[in-house]
Design brief:
Order of helices and strands of chain A: EEEEEEEEE
Number of helices of chain A: 0
CATH topology of chain A: Lipocalin
Number of strands of chain B: 9
Largest sheet of chain B: 9 strands, antiparallel
Radius of gyration of chain B: 17 Å
Largest sheet of chain A: 8 strands, antiparallel, barrel
CATH architecture of chain B: Beta Barrel
Structural class of chain B: mainly beta
Radius of gyration of chain A: 16 Å
Distance between the termini of chain B: 50 Å
Number of helices of chain B: 0
Number of domains of chain B: 1
Oligomer: heterodimer
Strand content of chain A: over 45%
Shape of chain B: globular
CATH class of chain A: Mainly Beta
C-alpha cells in the first residue's frame, strides 16, 4: 500500500464504519451564532444513501441569497479521540464569479465552517478565508 | 461595475488604481507541527522566488521523514478588501492519492486542514486532519 505519511496506513481508513461515523451529528439545519454576520446566515445538511448535500444562504442587502446546493465529500476524521470522532465534510460552492471551497465539522455540538473564497471575476477583490460558527436549529 | 455577491461581505469598494497584490510576508518561513506525535505533516516551508510562492512539505512515515516536494501556493486574505495574507492553499498529487492543504493563520499559528483522498484500489476512506503549526522564528 503506497503512502506519504504514517496516517495513510491507519487501519481505521479501511473500516467501512469510518466513512459515515456519527454523521448524524452534522445532519440538520444550522443557524449562524453571530446575529450580525455579513456572511452565511444558515446551512442545511442532508444525507441520502450515504451522500451528503449542503445548501446555504448568504446574508444579502435585500434578504437571503440562496447558494447553489452542492454535494459534499465525507471525510473520516482521525484527529479526535475515538469516542468523539465524526465525519467532516468538504464542499465546493460554485458560482460563476467565485468559488467557495469549504469544510464543515462539528466540535462539541457547534458546526464550524471554514470558507476559502476565490474570485473569478476582475473585480479586484482579494481571495479570502473566513470561519463561522453555527448552532443547530431544532 | 455591477459587483456580484453571494454574501454581503463580498460587497466592497475597491480602488482599482491602488489595488495591490496580497502581502504574503507573514506566511514565509518554516512552520513546525506543535504535536511531536503527529502521524502526518511535521513541518512545511513557505518560500518566495521571483514573486512565485511555493511550499515544501515534510511528513512522518514509518521509517522517518518523507519529503513531499514543492507545490504552488494560492494566497488568501482575511476579507475581500484586505491585502494581507492570512491563509493559503495548495495541492499535492501523489498518483495513488491527493492531498489538499488549507492553512489559516490564527493567533500566530497556522491551522492546517489536510484533506486526503485515495485514487488507488486500497479502499481507504478519504480523511481529514487539522493540526497546528508554529513559525520557527529563532528568536528566543
Amino acid at each position: 500500500m503506497e503512502f506519504k505519511e504514517s496516517a495513510h496506513l491507519d487501519s481505521a481508513l479501511t473500516d467501512p464504519a469510518t466513512r459515515t461515523l456519527n454523521a448524524d451529528k452534522l445532519i440538520g439545519r444550522w443557524r449562524n451564532t453571530n446575529t450580525k454576520t455579513r456572511g452565511i446566515a444558515e446551512i442545511t445538511i442532508k444525507e441520502r444513501d450515504g451522500k451528503f448535500t449542503v445548501t446555504a444562504s448568504g446574508v444579502g442587502s435585500d434578504g437571503p441569497i440562496p447558494w447553489p446546493p452542492a454535494q459534499a465529500l465525507a471525510l473520516a476524521n482521525l484527529e479526535e479521540e475515538a469516542g468523539q470522532r465524526a465525519v467532516a465534510l468538504a464542499v465546493n460552492f460554485d458560482f460563476d464569479f467565485m468559488t467557495a471551497e469549504t469544510y464543515l465539522r462539528v466540535n462539541k455540538g457547534v458546526l464550524v465552517i471554514v470558507l476559502f473564497v476565490t474570485f473569478r471575476d476582475d473585480s479586484g477583490r482579494s481571495n479570502y478565508v473566513n470561519r463561522e460558527f453555527f448552532y443547530r436549529q431544532e | 461595475m455591477n459587483m456580484q455577491v453571494a454574501q454581503i461581505c463580498d460587497q466592497v469598494e475597491i480602488d482599482r488604481t491602488i489595488a495591490a497584490a496580497i502581502d504574503h510576508a507573514g506566511l514565509l518561513g518554516t512552520w513546525i507541527n506543535s504535536n511531536p506525535d503527529t502521524t502526518g505533516v511535521t513541518r512545511f516551508v513557505v518560500t518566495e522566488d521571483s514573486g512565485r510562492l511555493t511550499v515544501q512539505t515534510y511528513a512522518i512515515g514509518p521509517d522517518g521523514v518523507i519529503d513531499w516536494g514543492t507545490a504552488d501556493v494560492t494566497v488568501f486574505a482575511s476579507s475581500a478588501s484586505a491585502r494581507v495574507a492570512t491563509g493559503f492553499a495548495c495541492r499535492y498529487d501523489f498518483g495513488f492519492g491527493e492531498t489538499f492543504l488549507q492553512g489559516m493563520i490564527l493567533k500566530g499559528l497556522v491551522v492546517l486542514a489536510q484533506f486526503h483522498t485515495f485514487k488507488d484500489d486500497s479502499n481507504r476512506a478519504p480523511f481529514f486532519v487539522r493540526e497546528y503549526y508554529a513559525l520557527d522564528h529563532g528568536r528566543f
